[in-house]
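Changelog-adjacent note: as of this version, every example in the card shows the full chain rather than a window. The one below runs 231 residues end to end.
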Amino acid sequence: MFAHARKNKVIGKDLSPFGKGGLQIKFPDTLKIPLSLDELTTLEGLELPDARHEHVRKLWLFAFYFAGMRGSDVLRLKWSDFQNYRLYYKMEKNDKGDSLKIPDQAIRILKCYEQFKGSDDDFVFPELKGVDLSDEFNSKRIIGYKMSAIDKMLNEHVAPAAGITKKLTMHIARHTFADLAGGTVDIQKLQKLYRHTKIETTIGYQGNFIHQDADDALDAVHNRRNNIPKP
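Full-length structure tokens:
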């Protein structure tokens, strides 16, 4: 509520009890477990008979194809955001905007929803049709409800159909992309893909998915122990 009031300039940061000079909330680290490449491939090849389950599968893949786009941003997309084979959008979390080329896999998903397009100002996906995004408080409440329903369906129906036993939510698409990027993509390029304001955020986030140094260190200790002559 305070964040909403500050963003709309109802109050200044000096009146908020949160943030600098106020209450600091520290969240514990959470385990970020991505899908494996085999699990991702299985999910891509899956066809689900229930249209609702098939829809959320497409939503997840669409988010993944755009570097793990946040689920709330996926739901906000309109047809007018796609121009000249590029996607132009601002990430709602920090208002950071840019454009990305549309991967071929994402184009195939878009074609599945073209039949429901009334105008360029329509939402691509059905969750927010009829919702007024200018009413920020109400739209965020609706998006939160929709995201919970999508995650529940992914976890309870799509994951079992794909033989995936780990947790599957929309945000796992972001973790999966980060894991595949590993240490192979330049950190500045990842910052641009993730729309992070600070590169330190990207470095910290990506560090959750780069395990080679720790694995090598573990192997080095065990190999050294195995090579020490026994008395």
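Structural remarks: DSSP finds ten helices and three strands in the chain.
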